[in-house]
Amino acid sequence: MKEKESDFLRSRREKIESLKAEGVELYPNDVKVSDTAGGILARLGGLDSETLGRISGRFSLAGRMMAIRDFGKGAFVSLQDRTGRIQVFLRKDRLGEKTFSLFKKLDVGDIVFVAGKAFRTRTNELTIDADEFRLLCKAVRALPEKWHGLTDTEVRYRQRYLDLIVNPKVAEVFKKRSRIIEIIRQFMKERDFLEVETPMMQYMAGGAAARPFKTYHNALGMEFYLRIAPELYLKRLLVGGMERVYEINRNFRNEGVSSSHNPEFTMMEFYLAYATYEDLMVMTEELITRICLELFGSLKITYQGQELDFSRPWKRFTVKEALVECGGVEPAALEDRNKAAAYAKSLKLDVEDMPLGKVIMAIFDEIVEPKLIQPTFITGYPVEVSPLARRNASDPSIVDRFELYIAGKEIANAFSELNDPVDQRERFLMQLKEREAGDEEAHGMDDDYVRALEYGMPPAAGEGIGIDRLVMILTDSASIRDVILFPHMRVKDEARKEEDEPGVIEG
After folding, report:
1. Domains of the chain by range and CATH?
2. pTM as predicted
3. Which end of the chain is more exposed for a tag (fewer CB within 10 A), N or C?
4. Which of 86, 489, 438, 424 is closest to 236 using CA atoms?
């Protein structure tokens, strides 16, 4: 099979050299188009043959030939551009001997320009009757075989360009992703938030508990980190008087890859002065329900066969309430470190040397998180796992924080911000001890951030919303790789070999 594919590529390259020898320009760049496939279909799709016959105007468009039905002196071509596909009729007596002869030498996958009037075939399909035809780009490689399409997920993710060409629904996912981000920006603008940018290379990896990627700045002679979160810089802006800020940002965490995790991911993180985490619950409900209504016109959608209902208000549990009600844990096991550890070990969780708060969260992640299908806010997080959040006024062992779960996935994380510089320094010192004990994800000491707090940061609340996971849910995508155009993949040498030519579409 590989030898046959190699022969095919050799044949394609020989054809290209032959076309060059004939003086055919293979890659011109002097064509302008006035129409699109989708635009023509929208404008003329409802017109009958007689009405179409009275339209004198010509249409011009360009796109990739996705199928060819050749009848000797005529052919039907399925032409695909960014808006969809339309049928084109090419015939020798209209295009002329030279142009039609060139067409006969082309292949499915080549990019061409056509122009002509619209008509309906005997099967009533809207078609462009081409009186002009040009080659714009000669493809060397063939598209995946038409009957089986491109279904291998490894190939789809590695060669996303092929995925977009042969799987039209994939492009729709990314169009919807763009629309979701557009709605988010409009929502924030209406609430007087300022969109800002903060450093992606930071001298200290802060703002979250995660293992960073390291890099080196030659000019400064310093080690830097790709950011794991923009939090500490955005809160510096609160100190500076920017009371409502947000950033749609790329973060990098040197962690595992799964259907819900990618080392490089997108978040929307925002901070609101003179607000609490409870205010952000309301704001989060308003934002996501608005997205649902604008995308679907409904607050009920289906994700992986499950109906999700975004009607407000959403469910709310504390961590301990969720463990008891959803996980079936005895309340007493959550108040004693030894009992909690014993329960965790019965679940085969490694909680050695963990404080009570971290043990509780390990149990929560294992037995509760997968059960949180409908939109649910979880509050009452232990202070041990929340080094940047404000302590609860009535119970200093927990913080004023929530996480939002949908379909068993964490979608958002928010809290009332800690703005006491003394408490913040003590939290950082506690994190340093945990790092010295072997916790690679523990937060470092950021003296400059503490210094900023000493100038005074207004009481505020902040939140991060995972864009990739939100898009997963709103596009019914099973894997995070389905909503990231170019997800990280392990490089394979054979992916670069000519023998890996996809199967051929017969023209």
Report:
1. 2-143 (2.40.50.140), 166-327+368-483 (3.30.930.10)
2. 0.90
3. N
4. 424
